[in-house]
From TrEMBL, chains A, B, C:
Gene: lpxD
Key word Lipoprotein present: no
Subunit structure: Homotrimer.
Catalytic activity, as annotated: a UDP-3-O-[(3R)-3-hydroxyacyl]-alpha-D-glucosamine + a (3R)-hydroxyacyl-[ACP] = a UDP-2-N,3-O-bis[(3R)-3-hydroxyacyl]-alpha-D-glucosamine + holo-[ACP] + H(+)
Coiled coil spans: 319-346
Domain UDP-3-O-[3-hydroxymyristoyl] glucosamine N-acyltransferase non-repeat region: 23-88
Any single Pfam family the record assigns to this protein: Hexapep_2
Highest taxon, organism lineage: Bacteria
Protein name in UniProt: UDP-3-O-acylglucosamine N-acyltransferase
Keywords, comma-separated and alphabetical: Acyltransferase, Coiled coil, Lipid A biosynthesis, Lipid biosynthesis, Lipid metabolism, Repeat, Transferase
A GO molecular-function annotation: UDP-3-O-[(3R)-3-hydroxyacyl]-glucosamine N-acyltransferase activity
Amino acid sequence: MQFTAAQISFLINGKIEGNAEAVVTSFGKIEEAEQHQLTFFANPKYEEFLYTTHASIVILSEGYELKHAVRPTLIRVPDAYSAFALLLSKYEEVARQQLKGIEQPSYLAPTVTLGTDVYIGAFSYLGNHVKVGNNTKIYPNTYIGNNVKIGSNCIIHPGVKIYHDCVLGNNVIIHAGTVIGGDGFGFAPQADGSFKKVPQIGNVVIEDQVEIGANTTIDRATIGSTFIKAGAKLDNLIQVAHNVEVGNSTVIAAQAGISGSTKIGNHVMIGGQAGIVGHISIADGSKINAQSGVSKSLKSPNTAVTGSPAYDYTSALRSQAVFRNLPEMERRIQELEELVRQLVAERVNSL
Amino acid sequence: MQFTAAQISFLINGKIEGNAEAVVTSFGKIEEAEQHQLTFFANPKYEEFLYTTHASIVILSEGYELKHAVRPTLIRVPDAYSAFALLLSKYEEVARQQLKGIEQPSYLAPTVTLGTDVYIGAFSYLGNHVKVGNNTKIYPNTYIGNNVKIGSNCIIHPGVKIYHDCVLGNNVIIHAGTVIGGDGFGFAPQADGSFKKVPQIGNVVIEDQVEIGANTTIDRATIGSTFIKAGAKLDNLIQVAHNVEVGNSTVIAAQAGISGSTKIGNHVMIGGQAGIVGHISIADGSKINAQSGVSKSLKSPNTAVTGSPAYDYTSALRSQAVFRNLPEMERRIQELEELVRQLVAERVNSL
Amino acid sequence: MQFTAAQISFLINGKIEGNAEAVVTSFGKIEEAEQHQLTFFANPKYEEFLYTTHASIVILSEGYELKHAVRPTLIRVPDAYSAFALLLSKYEEVARQQLKGIEQPSYLAPTVTLGTDVYIGAFSYLGNHVKVGNNTKIYPNTYIGNNVKIGSNCIIHPGVKIYHDCVLGNNVIIHAGTVIGGDGFGFAPQADGSFKKVPQIGNVVIEDQVEIGANTTIDRATIGSTFIKAGAKLDNLIQVAHNVEVGNSTVIAAQAGISGSTKIGNHVMIGGQAGIVGHISIADGSKINAQSGVSKSLKSPNTAVTGSPAYDYTSALRSQAVFRNLPEMERRIQELEELVRQLVAERVNSL
């Protein structure tokens, strides 16, 4: 695809300075962009590159005053970054809409139901009674188990595995290699020390507007459902155990883990590599720092915790600061002990 | 599949109260179950739902006395949860047994040997000399390398990758996306600061009754074997490095990692996100808390550790408790220093 | 493949003692090797096995003096382990070179360009304009997105997913299930508390001689590239976020995570399960201990850190040692307080 400055300016409602026929075919960063690339200038830190960039078109803010002439065509808008991001989104959307049809070989059970404008990549497997909504794109090498329902406008990236009976809403994005609906980790200890599998016959329900990163695992419920509520965003390599609920618009960074039956509220932020034990509740708006280990419910909304075991963020930071001085602190205690010993000895002598 | 109350009661040796012809087609939790679902009532906390549930059949204990009439058909048994779990297992077993035959397209080298009642899903790849035992089910999009041997009654979920020469026993379950037998992480530092790959030509041996979660990685040995012994249960996203041994009926929670050549004993429990360094031994029955970092061998059986670096559980909890008071403790030391300084000064003055 | 002692001795320039016609077909550890296996003896700890091994051929050092006669054929070389490793490498190389051609069914877009001696496994998908260099082996069930460029002599193990526009150099190895080029985790908070996806239109560039383990995830840049520089070695289940740079010959152990836009220098070593926050720099030669949490740039080269938050290794170890004595330390402070209280009281009384 290629676009002229005039076309782009029209899309973002901007004003052109320079050659309106300048052509771009892709996007770049201002410091790295090559000819026929589109870039933007928003951060003053990068000002020097505005005058040296090889980009053919630069989007910039209405208010910026040029120090001297520049080579690229300029498009002026009120907010350069937002306009650029809008173009990126449009570009991706257009590229995605070109994906249509069923590539061969693929495996669709005869009972599969597909909406309009669906894409099914080669080597994808759709089991019995799978339903796929309009405009959903399923990339190659994907496994969709029996009775899975996927809504409209979803993107299922390559190699995703969704076990039977799971349900996805609309506008859901799942990245490559992620596993939805694997068995929860449930084993009953036996008298002889061995473990017996507890059947996991629930499912996973993923609501609208959820995005899930690559190689993440979300286990099915023992009975009932593991829930990822509307608008939640999960990064890569995250573990969500059986019967967990992740609330609306909650954000979870990479490699975090949530143990079984824990309920995470709405608008919670969970840092990378944090761990949360099972069977607790995390109040709405909680902030859990990276690498924290949360072992008790967080009951007050909007509080921040850190550490393992995790507690109140500010207090924990103070303890961590003192921690660095522990050897010094021990030395001070020894000195005190010595001094006090002398004082006590003198007192005894003076009696 | 659908079942009547009479059929279910027969299977679990129960006594029917109500309509023996009531029909169910699936399972549900008592608080969420819909018509034509089967549920159970065991925990008194859920008593109210017994009288409001939409389930068609409820399994409950012989001893429970109804407060008033209920809508569903009841089936009385000595232990409601066990009876329910038994039904779940039977249901899954029956569903699994219907999986048979080789779906097309799939790739089986001419030298592959298959037992009876085997299922091979579409887009699965079985290399040279692969052997698969009776009644083993291999889901779609799976890769089984040359010379791999898989026992009987195994379930290999979609997208599992097993490298060449690995060996699986009987009744092994491996969940989606897990990688068995990738190269161990072995590199010899060179004089110029670069690293040279050390060939990893061992394999992975997984014994009977082992279950491994989704997207876990178990590396092949440099020479010899990485072992997962009989009855061990591993959760999702776990790292098991080359030449590790995991003992019988040991349980490892999600996102834990075990470094190279470490030997984990029998009946050990390892919490989520725990890490264990290489070349150490963990005694039988050890309990390693979530997020612990074990840097030394645990030599006495049945001890519990926590923390990073990990040590004795009870002591570590005490240290963690004091840790929270470190700023307060520092303040107390400052006060003591002030008081002692005054005492010393007065003593000097009094001389 | 089978080899005689004479052939092996020729390959490693050794001297034979015993039957030059002894035949081996595979490799083993000295304590476990069976007939027709080749092993080596280098570590004196294993001396007893030299006299009991069932191996048919043993490689050992020129200097070692036999205590009594041994059964296997011996091959003497200056450095037994190096000679053995060389044979392993040769063996793997030969095995790999036998992989050639395009297995069916596979999906190659008409615009794909393949070098000579390439292997494409069944069920692999190569999108538009994909380029694959000479002698590169792509195992089954792999997804290679549009415009991806892969150099020569690479090994892409089964089930790897490489998103569009990513670039791999020569001699790159990527293990099974790894995802290259998934979207970076970028969301703009909206006024209503929801999050809007920031398009991720950069790519991932992986330079020569890089090896990446299984089920690792490396996200594409928002704009520009996420870089893995030449000779870097990454283990399994690692998270590398968008716009990160990993330097030359840097080594990262399993389950470590690096947040967005952080720059890791050359020859850095990062331990397992370590986490590094975003937007910082790690100086060349830094050593980051396992499970550390690095929250600030490391500016001096060749320093070691540990802990979470991480700081100077030696100091942190001292603090950790004191940490274990915190309850005892608190007791000592209480004693001091009691003694000082008495001293103060007496002083008051004596006035």
